[in-house]
Amino acid sequence: MELRDAVYVDGVRLPIGRARDDGYYAQTRADDMAVRTIRALLQRNAALDPARVDDNVWAATAQTGDQGLTLGRSTAVLAGLPKSVPGYALDRMCAGALTAITNAANAIRVGAQDVVIAGGVEHMGHHAMGAEIDPNPRFLSENLVDPSALVMGTTAENIHDEHPEIGRDRADAYGLQSQERHAKAQAGGVFESHVVPMTVWTEQGWRVVDVDEHPRLGTSLDDLARLKTPFRNGGRVTAGNAAGLNDGAGCVLLTSREAADEMGLEATMRLVDYTFTGVEPETMGYGPIPATEQLLARTGLSLDDVDAVELNEAFAVQVLAFLDHFGLPDDTAKVNPYGGAIAVGHPLAMSGARMAQQMAHRLGTDSNARYGITTLCVGLGMGCAVLWEKI
């Protein structure tokens, strides 16, 4: 069976908020955040008849409360899509949105569907990471995983242990670079291509939020050096070289190439291939390395053939281990030129949508670029990598 092309048409996300009582979305429901992005995506693509949407696929790590009730179907109804549009929810933690995207692409590639919305939402202010789960005691009692595997910050400290050449100074320098790159991209209008505003209720009344809340402008190395290491006394992981706790939602529009042509929609890139793989849970940050290696081996490419990489940036040490493995300098322009989750934040299941949107912007604005990879690490020891080709 010959596979069809699954192409990326467009994507939008909300400004990422801080997961705290005075954050952007403290008084806003997670499903309403997702609905805002669906409606914005349809408004931006007026040539698409909403009745042509074959599925609405949404990821969330905490599938409960305002992120529960089969999120794909409930947000389809709330967004005003025709009742004929189905939907479903899924969870692969940090790889949630990228899993929604690859699932949607698969349905298109085999000819089962033509038009799919795929996205992710995470309201960590309403659902703190790990607060609503009950890990099976056998994980520890039967030594299935190291106890550190259940604390993401400790898994990053474990990578530091295995790579003493990646010390705190180097991690802090990378964290500062992420802040500076995001600030430059913000000033250059990069995020205007895919960030949409939302009106939210706060204690001060209604307000419109239109820029990411998490970045810390004016950060210095001295500031970073003063931060505590909460996961280990004398450790190396701090709030300044790790992703934050955040709220956000984002989705993308994928279609078959034939459907895009028929409706006059402009596709910007196609999904070529992808891989998911497992690694040791206590060093889950290694995930992007074997995932990317497997993806390159499957497609016959080398990293030299890849022009752009978007990596989630859960921790600076995770990125630095990736860069060292592939022989790239810490300041390479190939990886995260707009900054990453250290600066912008990491609303778990939503981050893959942000990365895909930034990849579309990069490939669309660089006339010399052809291939890009979105890759991230996943809690409990997994990695994901998706290869995109510019159209």
**Strand count:** 12
The number of distinct helices, counting runs of at least 4 residues, comes to 12
Radius of gyration: 20 Å
Topology-level CATH name of one domain: Peroxisomal Thiolase, Chain A, domain 1
Mean pLDDT: 97
Terminal-residue CA separation: 23 Å
CATH class of one domain: Alpha Beta
Counting copies of identical and different chains, the oligomeric state is single chain
Coarse morphology: globular
Structural class: alpha+beta
Q: Which architecture of one domain does the CATH hierarchy give at level 2?
A: 3-Layer(aba) Sandwich
| Uncertain runs | none
Order of helices and strands: EEHEHEHEHHHEEHEHEHEHHHEE
Major sheet, described briefly? 10 strands, mixed
Helix content: 25-40%
What is the CATH H-level superfamily of one domain? Thiolase/Chalcone synthase
Strand residues, percent? 15-25%
